[in-house]
User: Fold these one by one.
Assistant:
Number 1:
Amino acid sequence: MSLTTMILKMSEGLGKTCAIFFLTLLFSLPLGMIVALLRMSRNKIISSVTRFFINILRGTPLMLQLLAVTYGPYYLFGISVSRNKLIPVVIAFAINYAAYFAEIYRGGIESIPAGQYEAAEVLGYSKTQTFLRIILPQVVKRIMPSVTNEVVTLVKDTSLAFTVSYQEMFTIGKQIANSQTSFVPFVVAGVFYYLFNLIVDRVMGLIEKRLNYYK
């Protein structure tokens, strides 16, 4: 198989890799905020349950979580696995990354001085208005480097979808490598991921630059 043919075959899975990436961010970023707020709840039960949830997701391999979400329903309840494996893959990725984003959000929220809440209260802002108009914009600015790091990691983690035989780029590359007894497909995959990360890093860098409005 020529290098050109190999690249074309692997590029067919690139769209599925991008689908995992963008759908994971679409669901995990807002879900992470919800989890963070539950984690910070004054209700001890809610806070403890949420903390346990976060610890489980951060303390176990994403690969294991992919297998659990994809095949767990069948082994536990006899429910047939969906033919479209993108659904369980995105669910597993979104839940896992929501746990990481939740802790990033929590760190950002807790870094805001208490005086800002008090000042907003004096000005007549409600708690919701204070959070949305005063706290959240500052939190977003402060957590961008950490969020960027997680987003870059997500690009590479999409390759774990091969564990459930989802035909994304790395899975196709692995199949070609096995059939051709060659390491070249892995090199090609590495180049793809590197270029993808360059684009992501550039975009996130531009966002960070826009948020540095005091410089």
Note: The chain has one domain: 3-211.
Number 2:
Amino acid sequence: MWEFDEAVEVRSGVVDGIETPEQFLWRGRLWRVCAVEAQWVETAAWWERGVIGSGVGAATATAVAGSSAAVGVLDADWGPQRAVFRVEAGCGRHGRREMFDLAHDPDSGRWQLERVTDR
């Protein structure tokens, strides 16, 4: 597994009322999403939210593994949220496939590539 923090261009569509990635451009290559393996919502860690003495020691995520159903609901007090999608995507004629974690910030509309895992 490789960790990244790179902006990517994503074309998305709506599945079951949720915006999900369909394809993305990363380092000059077009990757087509074959399957959304999991999706979840992450909130900013307490030290990034500016909350001191809250007793919360780490980022909180609600996982919805293997489902394109509605993402878990978190309290509004938890601060900024972003959706993360673990997708299987293929590139090129030979059908090379890998797993990607793509994060979407709904406030800015930006997408980030966070992880890549070989299949």
Note: Residues 2-40+65-73+84-118 form one domain.
